[in-house]
């Protein structure tokens, strides 16, 4: 019998995504982040992410959120590429004091070290929020 023949077919379980065993982060792991950043002691430690807009063709939002004060810096960038992220980050760095950046493992954040000190860039675990 096939699933199509059944009166009440069972739903298949959705498999959870896992990182490949030979995955290597673009920089330092979130595990190496200093305790002062984890405890949110100081202002200036930011988390960076992109938000894709549904109606726009390629445009997306670059968001930086301060871990202590929850202050957000939001910029509209033309596409979700590393070049666009780095260009927007250059203009943000001229206006704001940023001590450290925590990013996910997206391709748009793979070249953050071109703009920001790689000693203070931390990458989250793959497939974790």
TrEMBL record:
Residues 1-43 are annotated as: Disordered. One of its GO terms (biological process) is transposition. It comes from the Bacteria. GO terms for cellular component: cytosol. Residues 30-43 have a biased composition (Basic and acidic residues). SUPFAM superfamilies: Ribonuclease H-like. InterPro entries: RNaseH-like_sf (IPR012337), RNaseH_sf (IPR036397), Transposase-Integrase (IPR051917), Transposase_IS30-like (IPR053392). PANTHER family: TRANSPOSASE (PTHR10948), TRANSPOSASE INSI FOR INSERTION SEQUENCE ELEMENT IS30A-RELATED (PTHR10948:SF23). This is Integrase catalytic domain-containing protein. It comes from Streptococcus pantholopis.
